[in-house]
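Cast an eye over this sequence plus tokens and walk me through the fold:

***
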Amino acid sequence: MWISVVLGIILLAIGALSLVAVSALSGDPEIDAASAALPPMGVMWVLMLISAALVVAQLILVIRIPRRQAGTRTAIIWLFVVSAAVGVVAAVLTTDYVSNGISLLLSVLLVGLLLTDGAKRYFAS
């Protein structure tokens, strides 16, 4: 999960810079043509803020893993369920199926791993 937190922070920085650049160059015909397929900037910023909140929640939960509390496991499961749902919405809105599909696949994989007996035993200690 630490790798996911670091990648999330990097992707948030790149995404925010991209949105700022598109906003700054909004009068350029090439930029307008390229961004015509995207949802309005307000929607893109809301998706960015939701992603930032998910990364912060993930950071808090990854710090809590060594405590081995069952509540932490449950919270991580819900975090990845919400993350998968946001990924599906983002894929539909932005038509970026590859990266959002990978995110969805990883979320499903992690939820599946956290539902195993080994994970239940680890977090029950």
